[in-house]
Specification:
With 104 residues, this protein is an alpha/beta fold. Helices cover 36% and strands 24% of the residues. The chain has a five-stranded parallel β-sheet. The longest helix has 15 residues, at 14-28.
């Protein structure tokens, strides 16, 4: 299976905004989209900052967050939306073999 895998390591800025827009467009076209948030990017799943990911969630994109970065951020896994899966980079990449990778 193919699709788009988006890896985000920042919590904002024009690169992240464009990457999220591209991922939403791909999902709207029926492509499978999987998003992995690491580093400062995990702040995008904080309850008060989750709006940028709302469209992707509505379009059925898979949302994954780095367990290590989540712990470092102070965000509790219990505060995550049910569709956000804490995981590691290795397991994420294993699940998106053959996908195009987009880094932001």
């Amino acid at each position: 299976m193919t699709g788009l895998a988006l890896l985000i390591a920042e919590a904002g800025g024009p690169r992240v905004a464009l990457a999220l827009e591209a991922a939403a467009a791909a999902a709207a076209l029926g492509e499978r989209v999987e998003v992995f948030l690491a580093g400062e990017g995990v702040r995008l799943v904080a309850p008060e900052a989750a709006a940028p990911l709302a469209t992707l969630r509505e379009l059925g994109a898979g949302l994954h967050v780095c367990q290590t970065a989540l712990a470092a951020s102070g965000i509790q896994a219990s505060d995550l939306a049910p569709e956000v899966a804490p995981s590691g980079l290795l397991s994420f990449l294993a699940g998106v073999r053959g996908f195009r990778l987009l880094l932001a």
